[in-house]
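Example 3.2
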Amino acid sequence: MENQAVQSTYTLMPVFLIIALISVLLFLTADRINSQVGRWGGKMAASTVFVLFALYLDVLESVHGPALMAALIFSWFGDFLLLSDKRRWFLYGLVSFFLAHIAFSCCFIQRGIYAGKLLLPSAGVILLALVISYWLLPHVDKEMKLPVLGYMIAIMFMVSLAFGTHHHVPNPSIPVAACFFLVSDLFVARDRFVKKDVWNHIIGTPLYFSSQMIFATV
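Structure, written as tokens:
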């Protein structure tokens, strides 16, 4: 009976994954042909899927679930805001994702952190942050440098804690998802500040939505 209950719980998982995949493909196709309706529809459909996926998996039943759900909802709003090319909307989107990373960090802390294993990933994250800053900041205008730096600190902190919580209760998908999120953000930054290129979305978008679908299972 218990096995049947578990199987019943995960029956619709492939449906969520397929809808997310179709939505991402719709967004990427619409982006290529410059269809704003397709871009908005595809991206927000994919974003809605990871929120509903988390609810389907009863994420709110766990101690860290409310923080995780808050992170996913902040991400949903961030996705909506970043669809616009307007500078103000981009800043609002940055703030929304900043709050998402804070919520993810709270989620990992509530799940548990093995502090003894934080040194190595933290050192790696700091080194990576320095390299990214050297590459990115010269392309960022003066008014945006502080928000971008603040956002970088938030996501690097989140990635470090993702490794810390994995070492507390092993789940390698958590640091994998965090790294996917980080890499996807590098492509967002490249698109906004360095060079607009089709590959920014082709590579970054699937990585981002993969990270969110993985996080929804934590």
